[in-house]
Amino acid sequence: MKGKFFRTFMVFMTVLLLSFLAACSDGSKSSSSKQEDGEITLKVLHNWNGSGAGAPEDPMKNPVADKIAEKTGVRFDMEYTNGSEVEKLTQVLATGDFPDVYIGPAWGKEAELLLQAANQGMLHDLTPYIKEYPNLAEVVKKENMSISLYNDIISKQESGQFILHSMYPATEADIEDWLYGLYVNKDIADELGVDPNSVQTPEDLYNFLKEIKEGKFEANGNSVFPLGTYDNGWPLDITSEMFVPVAGAGSWFIDDKGNARYNFMTEEYEEWILFMRKLMSEGLLDPEAFSHTGTIAREKIAQGRYAVIPGQFEGVWNDAKKGGNQKKYVPLGPLEDFSGDRYRTEFNVQGSQLIAVSANLSEEKLEAFVKMFDYLSSDEGYLLTKFGVEGVHYDLEDGEVVAKEEMVQKIKDDTFKNEGVGHYLAFSGLDREDSLGGGPFGHQYDEKSEVKKEVTEIRRKDGIKPTTGIDPYSVLKNHPKFDQIEPITIVMGDAVQQAIHAGTEEEALGIMNKTRDALKKAGIEEVAAEITKQAQDGTEFMRYRTSN
Predict the structure, then answer these.
(1) Contact present, 78 and 54 (Cβ < 8 Å)
(2) In the structure, what pLDDT confidence band is assigned to residue 36 with cuts at 50, 70 and 90?
(3) Would 547 disulfide with which of 87, 180, 475, 494, CB 3.0-4.6 Å?
(4) Neighbours of 99 (CB within 10 A)
(5) What residues form DSSP beta bridges with 261?
């Protein structure tokens, strides 16, 4: 009897011990600790709005993640942002709950907040590792980032190098062209007898949209709006390039003599707002353009309810594809810019990602992160993150990546994202999609890639040039009046929307002038005078930029 009791007791204790060990194992995964098999899991905040939608079903275990773990011993426990990247990072910094690794935009308030975190001791100094690992050193070189990023963020780090930067094009061939512009449903243009290329000026655009409205087109029983947008009116402001050299209310207009004016204060930008108000008041622009969600906007595009849509080529193609309409949308124009040039294209060449690690990261995890980043930034590592596992996802033919046919089928079936290809790209240094891989994954079989070439030929007849000079915003940000001006600029977009929805031009101008008066009182004209002085004294400022 005693023996039976003893055996039962031992079985119970064994089960209890195994349960305890399992719990410890599960807990170690959630807290990003070292795994039993020697792997290390890093908790990563992927601070890009909606990035989880394109994530693999299992970001920790998929073919690419498994290969990264095999090569580096590192796996990633990813958290994705849904909503404002600025709000998310602000929340993280306020709570002090900084992840092991942070990935986020290499511009705007997000970059400024990350710099604050660096200078407040919340990030780990990577200087010793940058000296030891050439691939880390490469991504923080001045020549491998935009002038603005270097001047405003990277060079402002105090007592160390806390921030890494990635996805800057390694060569000119690697510069990503999103092909922003207006796209039109060619069936509608054909029915009206209008050549999309003939629409070149604001007047041409207005007349064309009027013809569409008068045509009373329908899609699936619903009225077709002449002009639509994505959520919050994005990216309708690219059309302001017809009036000013750099799109957006918060950009600067610097003329040939060096005289600087804030876009929102100019007559030219005022003309754009009144032009948009005219479209809205006459029913040529979707009345929900600034209020509908991204989901609703994409449904409208999929259903073909927009005759003309502003956007980037790939986004419009993918959204229209859901309704089988991807081939219908072709470039409208190109439209003339503020100076009457239809083909001038100058991009602010920049990388997209900033990466940082927590100051509280253990030495073991830090070493693992650095070695992982160094490997993935090599040519071999870049090929892995960008194109997948050789022999599984692609073959190399004459030095060019050629996707496996079964992977092309997965792209068509919308299951390819579960392979993990492209998902860990932020850790892979300079962008080498064309110079190393020969082009986007599967482009040899991808109808979209062929159409993109045709769109490029239409929009980029004069090729692409990088912008030169520093962003005038850097003068504003460092000006003594910045703290008074910034709160007004934050709500300036609301004034633009209200003016576009105004019942009359006089009402629209009244809304604009109220905000203009606030900007003047805050000191915007003093900033303009400083930029003018620097420009006339020889400082090279960025005076022209194509949306990208």
Answers:
(1) no
(2) very low
(3) 180
(4) 21
(5) 253
Cβ-contact 271, 190 below 8 angstroms: no
H/E/C letters for each residue in 79-112?
EECCCCHHHHHHHHHHHCCCCCEEEEECCHHHHH
> Could you tell me which of 85, 65, 172 has the C-alpha nearest to residue 354?
85
Q: pLDDT, tens digit, for every residue of 253-287?
A: 999 999 999 999 999 999 999 999 999 999 999 99
Please report which helix (H) or strand (E) contains residue 187, including its range: helix 186-192
Q: Which two tokens stand for residue 39?
A: 């792997």
Residue 10 binned pLDDT confidence (cut-offs 50, 70, 90): very low
| Segment (H or E) for 165 | strand 164-166
- Rounded distance between C-alpha atoms, residue 133 and residue 374, angstroms: 7
| Residue matched to tokens 């005759």 | 307
The residue behind tokens 């596992």 is: 389
Is the separation of the CB atoms in 175 and 347 below 8 Å? Answer: yes
Euclidean distance between CA atoms 482 and 19, whole angstroms: 58
CB 42 within 8 A of CB 75: yes
Q: Which of 44, 46, 162 is nearest to 100 (CA)?
A: 44
Provide the token pair at 395.
């073959």
End-to-end Cα spacing for the chain: 80
Q: What would the pLDDT profile of 354-377 be if each residue is shown by its tens digit?
A: 999 999 999 999 999 999 999 999
The answer to whether the CB of 86 falls within 8 A of the CB of 110 is yes
Q: How do strand 400-403 and strand 394-397 relate by DSSP bridges?
A: antiparallel
Token couple for 146: 């935009």
Tokens representing residue 308 in the block: 């003309």
Residue 7 has pLDDT above 50, yes or no: no
Min mean pLDDT across 12-16, 192-196, 437-441 is at 12-16
pLDDT at 345: 96
Rounded (5°) CA angle 254-256-467 = 65
CA 337 to each of CA 94, 244, 499, 543, 544: distance values in angstroms, whole numbers, following the listed order: 43, 8, 23, 13, 10
Question: What is the average pLDDT across 212-225?
Answer: 96
Q: Three-state secondary structure along 229-279?
A: CCHHHCCHHHHHHHCCCCCCCCCEEECCCCCEEEHHHCHHHHHHHHHHHHH
Cα–Cα separations (whole angstroms), residue 260 to 382, 390, 482, 519, 545:
42, 52, 17, 15, 15
- pLDDT bin (cut points 50, 70, 90) of residue 82 is confident
Residue 502 DSSP one-character state:
-
Furthest-apart CA atoms within the chain: distance in Å: 103
Are 195 and 178 contacting, i.e. CB atoms less than 8 angstroms apart?
no
Q: Which of 297, 281, 277 is nearest to 289 (CA)?
A: 297
